[in-house]
Amino acid sequence: MEIRQLKYFLAAVEHGSISQAARSLFVAQPALTKQIRNLEEELGVTLLERLPRGIALTAAGRQFFRNASKIQDDLISAKQQAIQASTGQLGTMTLGLTVLHSLLPIIAEILRRFRQDAPRVSVTLHQLISGPQVDRIRAGELDAGFLFYRPLDDPTLSGTLISTEKLMLAVPRDSQWAAHPPKRLAELNGVDMIWFPRGATPMYYDHLMHHFHKAGYTPHVAMEGSDNAAILTLVTAGMGCAILPALARYQAEDSVVFLPLEDLNLEMPLELVWHTENPSPVLQRFVEIARATFPSR
Fold first, then answer.
1. pLDDT higher than threshold 90 for residue 229
2. CA dist 165 to 51, 138, 148, 171, 226, Å?
3. I want to staple 29 with a disulfide (CB 3.0 to 4.6 A). Which of 22, 43, 72, 248 is the partner?
4. What residue spans define the domains of the chain?
5. Are 3-86 and 163-268 the same fold in CATH?
C-alpha cells in the first residue's frame, strides 16, 4: 500500500467523482482509477461502488475512509512536527542551574522568552554547582548549564556570557566583623572561614586562590560546604565567615551581613555553557534567545 493510493482514494471520496479527483490532483483519470483498483486488490475488498454519475462508498469503503483520513492527518502532523523539531520548536532540553542563580531575573527572563518562542519544548532543570555541570555537559547528560568559570582550555565547551557577579564577605551579624568591617582581604588572615572543596569547582577555586595570594591572604578553613547555599547556612549558624557571590544576600537571613572589601574586586562571569558538538536544534534556539536577552559585550 502506498501513500499515493490513499491520497487518490481520499480525493475521489471527497469529490464524489474519480474524474473530478483526477483534475484536482492534476493526474490522468486512467492512472488514478488504476491506483484505486490496485488498492482494492491489495485489500481484497471493494471500496467504491461505481455509479452512472459518480461513486459511492461500500461498507468496507466507509470504514477504510475513516481510517485513511486519520492516517492522512497523522502524516500531516508528522510532517509539521518534523519541521518543528528541525527548527528547535519541538523536543526536550535539560539544563543545569545553581541554587543561587535561580534567583537571577535574567535567567528567569531567558526561560520566559524561550517558553513563549517554543512552547512545545519540554525543559528539565537540574540544580547543580558549576563543576558537576561541566562534567555532565561533557558526558551528554545536560544540554547546557548556567555556571561560573567555563574551562577555557577545553575546545569541547562553548559558552555565552549571561551576567557578571561580584563577591562579598558574608559574616554573622553578631560578629566583630559586622561591628567593625574589614577593608581588605589580608585583615581576614587567621579568621575562621567556611569554604568549599576544590573538587566542587576547580576553576573557580583556583581563580580565587590566585587572587587571594596576590592580596596577601590565605583562608583559614574551619568548615566546608558543598555549595554556596550550604556555606550560607553555616554562616547563618555563626560557624564562621565566607566569601560568596553578592547574589547570595537575597537568600540570606537577617542574621547575616554582607560586606564589600576594597581588594575583593573579582567579577565572576556567569555563562550559558554547552557541548560544542551538540547538534540539538532546541539547544541552538535556546542559545540564540539567551544571546538576544543578554548580548555579550
1. no
2. 79, 25, 9, 19, 20
3. 22
4. 3-86, 100-162+275-293, 163-268
5. no
Of 267, 265, 295, nearest in space to 106 by CA: 295
For 3-86, CATH number? 1.10.10.10
Residue holding cell 467504491? 48
Q: Return d(Cα 148, Cα 145) in angstroms, integer.
A: 10
Whole-number Å distance between alpha carbons of 291 and 288: 5
Contacts for 1 with CB less than 8 Å, ≥ 6 apart: 39, 42, 43
pLDDT digits (tens, 9 = 90+) for 12-57: 999 999 999 999 999 999 999 999 999 999 999 999 998 888 899 9
The 10s digit of each residue's pLDDT in 100-119 is 787 788 899 999 999 999 99
What is d(CA 170, CA 254) in angstroms, rounded to the nearest whole number?
12
The domain over range 163-268 is classified in CATH as 3.40.190.10: yes
Which pTM was predicted? 0.71
Residues 233, 251: Cα–Cα separation, whole Å:
10
pLDDT for position 297 = 46
Q: How far apart are CA 190 and CA 187, in angstroms?
A: 9
CA separation (Å) from 85 to 77, 100, 103, 177, 295?
12, 32, 30, 56, 26
Per-residue model confidence as pLDDT tens digits over 45-100: 999 998 888 899 999 989 999 998 998 888 888 888 888 778 788 899 999 998 87
